[in-house]
Give the backbone structure.
Amino acid sequence: MDLSLVIPVYNEQENLPLLFEAVYKTMNPLGKTWEAILVDDGSRDESLSVLMEYAAKDQEHIRVVSFRRNFGQTAAIAAGLDYSSGEIIVLLDADLQNDPADIPMMLAKLDEGYDLVSGWRKNRKDNAVTRNFPSMVANRVISQVTGVHLHDYGCTLKAYRRDVLEGFRLYGEMHRFIPVYASSVGAKITEVVVNHHPRKFGKTKYGLERTAKVILDLFTVKFLVSYSSKPIYLFGGTGGLLMIISAFIMAYLFFRRIFFLVGVTGSPLFQTSVMFFILGFQSILMGLIAELLLRTYHESQHKPTYTVRKVINMESKYD
Ligand code: UDP
Ligand code: MG
């Protein structure tokens, strides 16, 4: 299979017929083998029956996964990826805000040798105050923190080579961070400007609170990508620093005691020093526990601590 489209669907009954029309219009002339995996995320409208109708008509291309309840867009995407079999995977929204007509251009970029092509909704048609502005800020912060510079993490429309999607699972609202994981396993990433349309039917499932969740997820992602193979550097580093500060404060207090006869325990600096010492010590212990967890994680799943592109004159060990 050349290509899998993975499409999360939640209450999009009016959009689906138009979506299928647009998908066929793009995919048929491509001359590739393809499938579209639509994941019904516990819709409460008629989305599932519309999907079933199309699936019955076209068993070659249309596949449906139906959730028992609403698990969220990231879970829907994760399921779609698990069931997909294409060499290349394209994610897009079901509400036609993304334009399937952009897909061939993105595939051409992959052919140039990129592993991940990220859509950029340069002309985004969502609410400026609750969505576009917070999202712009979030994109800057994410780019700065992770070192993977993209204008539009939130755009679902992205194309991936399958191998950069292997080796991690998606939690929370994490699908937008796939480029960060991909970059951490050495993917070549590029960005293209894509169309964006206002929603015609149904309404958006998100508001301002989403940006807050995204920023919290960023902590997790940064930790996982930068420190998950060496947590003691983070915890031990912080802990060590706190203990050094604590030692300096204590030295200063003793110096004052000896030469200026000022009591040690009367000063709030004394409590600060003791607190820093305890926190620092705890932090180092936490780092050691994290190191243990890390070993359990890799060894219980036979997961290597590296990613291999290919091996020559040998069998690959892990697939
Ligand atoms: N979606 C989903 N589960 C959810 C929320 C959204 O599968 O719990 C799907 C939704 O049907 C759409 C895509 O995710 O295909 C993006 O959702 P939406 O258009 O509401 O987000 P926005 O474009 O406003 O960011
Ligand atoms: Mg949308």
In short: Residues 3-226 form a domain with the Spore Coat Polysaccharide Biosynthesis Protein SpsA; Chain A fold (CATH 3.90.550.10).
